[in-house]
Amino acid sequence: MWKPDKPIIVAGSALPPAEAWWHEFRSAFYDRSKGAVDREWLDSLAAALYPLNVDRDPRQAAEVAFITLAFELPREPQS
Questions:
Q1: Angle CA 71–73–24, to nearest 5
Q2: I want to staple 15 with a disulfide (CB 3.0 to 4.6 A). Which of 20, 34, 49, 65 is the partner?
Q3: Closest CA relative to residue 18, chosen from 60, 46, 37, 38
């Protein structure tokens, strides 16, 4: 499981590793998107990606997610 180099303090308490991962992922993705994402959508994305990225740096996971979501699936060729 990923752990931050330094404790992440929110409201005077250090976040446990899982909460720190979510905090860092959401912060990095939100910054990368320049705030153009809905908070609930971002929470859902973090929930979906966390189990697959529990050992990965959350900022790297956010970068990969952001780049991936910029692609569109190819459409069916029209005849």
A1: 40
A2: 20
A3: 46
Q: How many CB atoms lie within 10 A of CB 9?
A: 10
Strands (E), the chain: 9-10, 13-14
Q: How far apart are the C-alpha atoms of 8 and 76, rounded to whole Å? A: 46
The rounded distance, in Å, linking the Cα atoms of 6 and 35 is 25
pLDDT score recorded for residue 52: 97
CA distances from 53 to 25, 45, 46, 57, 76 (A): 10, 12, 10, 8, 31
Predicted pLDDT of residue 73: 74
Q: List beta partners, residue 9.
A: 14
pLDDT given for residue 74 in this prediction: 80
